[in-house]
Amino acid sequence: MTEPPRLEVRGLTVRFGGFRALSEVSWAVRSGQILGIIGPNGAGKSTCFNATTNMVRHDGQVLLDGQDVTGLPAHRLAKRGLHRTFQQNAFFGGISVLENMTGALLRTAGTPLAAAVLLPWVEYRRRHRAEEVAGALLVRFGVPADLHALPPGSLPYGTQRMLSIALAYADDARVLLLDEPAAGLGGQDMEKLAETLAALRAEGLGIVLIEHHMDLVMELADHLVVLEQGEMLAEGPPSVIQADPRVLEAYLGHAA
Ligand SMILES: Nc1ncnc2c1ncn2[C@@H]1O[C@H](COP(=O)(O)OP(=O)(O)OP(=O)(O)O)[C@@H](O)[C@H]1O
Ligand SMILES: [Mg+2]
């Protein structure tokens, strides 16, 4: 028997008033796979993530490891290992990079309140351990130790993008939805990003990557979905999509 996909969406449809932002969009990503979602501005890519994580009203179905999770709110999906980043960076600005990361780790595995109150040393040890893990994770995602005590807003932009991914990954992501992680990145940061995503895939994560940087997405994705005006224009392996005249036209048409 083959394993069900890590994450599958079937017939996702989103309406904003009379406007259909997404029409019958279906895709799946398996463990150890990167699915790329591309398409011109306004095609419905981010809306796809918002529908998947139940942040907008939608029709259609969402399955996580073969189980129907369509009705679950984002925080319940997160507990099951479905994590996402946003097109804009979102950090807690008043605390340090390390505290942001530690918080993300502690959120995923809470001590019951009674234990935290009655056994403060347990809570202390747990926090201390989380800080160690947080520090190591940050370094792994390309945020060097000398930046951990700073507020996130003072990091170089490329490092902030990597921090977003580290926070989404925490330590228990099974599926990552990444909304334009390479936006605004330069060459060296782009390489670090590509390397990191390839390593996460090798670890068995399912990754859905929305990206405008064609070089990156063509290099990384195992399979691509092309959206245009809320519809699935094409899907297939990168080599096939690159040669698809409809895809070229969708991009050139919008650039003109
Ligand atoms: N909450 C909302 N209310 C009304 N319209 C919305 C809402 N969110 C998105 N839209 C519209 O839905 C369409 C798809 O938007 P979406 O943000 O998904 O596009 P996108 O493919 O992510 O574009 P980009 O590449 O610019 O990020 C756009 O026309 C957008 O204006
Ligand atoms: Mg978007």
Overview of this protein structure:
The protein is α/β, with parallel strands linked by helices and 256 residues long. It folds into two domains: 1-81 and 173-256, Rossmann fold (3-Layer(aba) Sandwich); 91-171, no CATH class. It has helices at residues 45-52, 74-79, 97-108, 113-118, 120-140, 157-169, 187-202, 214-220, 238-242, 245-255; strands spanning 7-16, 19-29, 33-38, 59-64, 67-68, 82-84, 175-179, 206-210, 223-228, 231-236. The chain has a six-stranded mixed sheet, sandwiched between helices. Strand 9 and strand 10 form a beta hairpin. The longest helix has 21 residues, at 120-140. It binds adenosine-5'-triphosphate (ATP) and magnesium ion. Residues 16, 21, 39, 41-47, 87 line the site of adenosine-5'-triphosphate.
Describe the SSE topology.
Blueprint: E1 7-16, E2 19-29, E3 33-38, H1 45-52, E4 59-64, E5 67-68, H2 74-79, E6 82-84, H3 97-108, H4 113-118, H5 120-140, H6 157-169, E7 175-179, H7 187-202, E8 206-210, H8 214-220, E9 223-228, E10 231-236, H9 238-242, H10 245-255
Parallel strand pairs: 3-8, 3-9, 6-7, 7-8
Antiparallel strand pairs: 1-2, 1-4, 4-5, 9-10
Bound molecules: adenosine-5'-triphosphate (ATP) and magnesium ion.
